[in-house]
Amino acid sequence: xxxxxxxxxxxxxxxxxxxxxxxxxxxxxxxxxxxxxxxxxxxxxxxxxxxxxxxxxxxxxxxxxxxxxxxxxxxxxxxxxxxxxxxxxxxxxxxxxxxxxxxxxxxxxxxxxxxxxxxxxxxxxxxxxxxxxxxxxxxxxxxxxxxxxxxxxxxxxxxxxxxxxxxxxxxxxxxxxxxxxxxxxxxxxxxxxxxxxxxxxxxxxxxxxxxxxxxxxxxxxxxxxxxxxxxxxxxxxxxxxxxxxxxxxxxxxxxxxxxxxxxxxxxxxxxxxxxxxxxxxxxxxxxxxxxxxxxxxxxxxxxxxxxxxxxxxxxxxxxxxxxxxxxxxxxxxxxxxxxxxxxxxxxxxxxxxxxxxxxxxxxxxxxxxxxxxxxxxxxxxxxxxxxxxxxxxxxxxxxxxxxxxxxxxxxxxxxxxxxxxxxxxxxxxxxxxxxxxxxxxxxxxxxxxxxxxxxxxxxxxxxxxxxxxxxxxxxxxxxxxxxxxxxxxxxxxxxxxxxxxxxxxxxxxxxxxxxxxxxxxxxxxxxxxxxxxxxxxxxxxxxxxxxxxxxxxxxxxxxxxxxxxxxxxxxxxxxxx
Length: 577
Fold this sequence. Notes:
64% of the residues lie in helices and 9% in strands. The chain is α/β, with parallel strands linked by helices. β3 (86-91) and β4 form a beta hairpin.
């Protein structure tokens, strides 16, 4: 039965290839290649710092992919079967490069390839894993909702290529708003989703079970997925157990339970899910093409006067929509200002707390260095201030960025939903003009994230200035006097540095928030404008018939009708597979 369905689907894809617009042909070709190769893509998904890469390493049983405590993975990494380990880098330019395992982090991590400045398209790793040998590709994706905007975009752009997903959450914190909103975006794209709760080794059993139940309830309430099973495990302990061949520890890690289910899926359900995935992706493309073809065909069958009326009505509906866009833009601007005010309040609180913390820390620090000479006191002073600034600001920055990330994503999501309503309304208006039926399309645009602020201290910023007293004179003063002067200036310098870095944080984060919302708004406006122009061109197509002979007009109409009939027939066949 599967073979028959696969053959039928391959034939339908070949037919669709010659019927859709040029922009969709590449997508159809990719789906055909996937089906032909029986290539099943299993994406490991989730928010940053949930342990996705460690989880993949645990499945493979070795430290293959680089891991770290900071958001790390910056490009798509595809693992497929090979008799031996081989790593190939694919660049956006089309060039490739074979590398050693020790070089991998130079291309796939944010630390060594920030914002993908090396223009890596993706990485492919051949590995002799039993999972991969059964026709599965495991894909490590960049974490969503991190400080790096491009990472989230990379993951969203890859999703249409995935056939199923493993969605990782952690025990602490449990599922966040950004995560369940991401699930809402991907649930319609992936026919199969596995759920894993990682890092159970960091809490006692009662606490991680409570976290798991909370996550399950949130997914049911906010995502609408019921009857889901979440597998609790510790990828860290599982990896350690496999490396040491410790079966008892592996069993305690929880990974064996998940591997059993995954193994059954690979044997029994993989091909069915692959067929369903390719079918659904093809259906979405066909449905959009049918709608556009219908509009074009109807325009060819309408009189010049009718088309002028329809064009006038359509333009009138656009004026209403444009007013709605202006209103939505204004509301988004207000949301962004609210986010910036939140940032400013948080920075004021940080400044007050950091200044007080520095005052206390300096007293404690000085108590440990009273025996130093004045010169020695200066020497250790610079490194201490730099370390303390890093400690205070990096700790605050991590929590603040996640907070701003969620606030911005919520604001952009509201704007995205409004823009999608506009897109659907435009298509519905056009369909109604020609008496066509219209089914609402899920056209949600991926969300851009606010990028991060890379907090760095420059050498010249951590050198205290004692210009009011010459260095030589200072060193000649009695120790208690020299110490008193240095300590006084140290306090003032610390306060100035706190204020300076708060200002830097404010400027950079506000700039990034503004850039993220402007880019996203521009993309949504472009989508609306592009759709509008396509519909107007389709309506005007009928008006251009005057310049054609009757025979030419009949040929054109026949071509559109044939295309529409073919697409409609293919749609019916896809729905029965």
